[in-house]
Each structure stands twice: as C-alpha cells, then as structure tokens.
Write a structure and sequence with these properties.
mainly alpha, Cytochrome C3, 4 helices, 26% helix, globular, Cytochrome c7-like domain-containing protein
C-alpha cells in the first residue's frame, strides 16, 4: 500500500512539476510486448514515447482508469487484445478509431 501511494505521489509530482513541462519526457517505462492472439498478423509492442505528447505529458488520461500504473496482473499479461474488444472501446480502442488512427492499416501496430 505504501509503495502504491508513494508511486502515485511521485507521478503527481512529476505531472505537476516543471521538469515534465520543460519539454523532456519523464522516464517512461520500457517497450511492452502485448500478448498475441492466434489470428494476429504480427506482434504488437506498446511504446509510451509514441503515445505521449512531449509538450504536454498527461499520464492520467490512461492511468489508472484504462490501464493500471503498477503493472498488469498475471491474467492481463496473458490475455490477448482483440479487435472485437477494441471495437467496443476497450484497451487500445479507447482512443484508436476515435481520436487516434483507426484499424485500417495493420502495419501501424503489427510487426511484419
């Protein structure tokens, strides 16, 4: 519990502090390979640097509502993200297909 509160406090300080607004991105987590479903055309790796506006970093638009900030559960780590779920607005579909590019070009996300 203390670790969670400390981490949340550090995140809030980073978001409200001047260093994050000075143009430098906060230390972002490493690339995150997502679980691949059986019918997937290729691996998808989530990269924070392509999802964060360096002029206005805003972690709270995704964390902790959409995605946990202290890592994924063992179940989530194994659960593939499906297009059916995304089309319902879950996971990546919370933004993609709405304010971010849609699902027309597989190569935008899937490695070939």
């Amino acid at each position: 519990m203390t670790l969670k509160l400390s981490w949340c406090g550090a995140l809030a300080g980073l978001l409200l502090g001047g260093s994050a607004l000075a143009g430098d991105l906060p230390n972002l987590p490493p690339e995150l390979p997502l679980p691949q479903g059986g019918d997937s055309p290729g691996q998808v790796t989530f990269r924070h640097d392509s999802h964060v506006d360096s002029a206005k970093p805003d972690c709270v638009s995704c964390h902790p509502r959409r995605f946990g900030i202290l890592g994924r559960s063992a179940k989530e780590k194994k659960q593939a993200v499906t297009h059916a779920a995304m089309e319902k607005g879950e996971s990546c579909g919370a933004c993609h297909g709405k304010q971010a590019f849609g699902f027309d070009d597989c190569t935008m996300c899937h490695a070939q």
